[in-house]
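note to self: dont lose this again. the chain is below, predicted strucutre after it. 123 aa total, dont forget to put it in the shared folder this time
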Amino acid sequence: MAGFLHFLCAVFYLSLISQGHCQCHPATDLKIFQSQTEVVVQNKPQWKVTIVNDCVCTQVSIKLACDGFQTVEEVDSSILAIGDDGCYVNHEQPVYGHQTFNFTYSWGTQYPFMPIYSESACS
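---
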């Protein structure tokens, strides 16, 4: 029995090591902050969105939940591409570790963007 417990502990330890410190998770490692700017577009306040990659690794293919997102200010699709299954950030290009990515939109209220997907690119 003790041998079996040691085996399970070893498997658990190795699984933690194999994940390494460069596994990024969108729900915990992508932080989204928003603030209202002083700009008004078509009588709607402008919001600045800042996405922070709080992981040491680069994250690519970042996707945000954005069902029902609206803006009166055109957002370049290379910055935020609205798709059927979410909004793709930065034309799916990298957001490097501990760096930020920004965009703006204009609407009456702040939209609650939530990160739902990303891929880690560690070296």
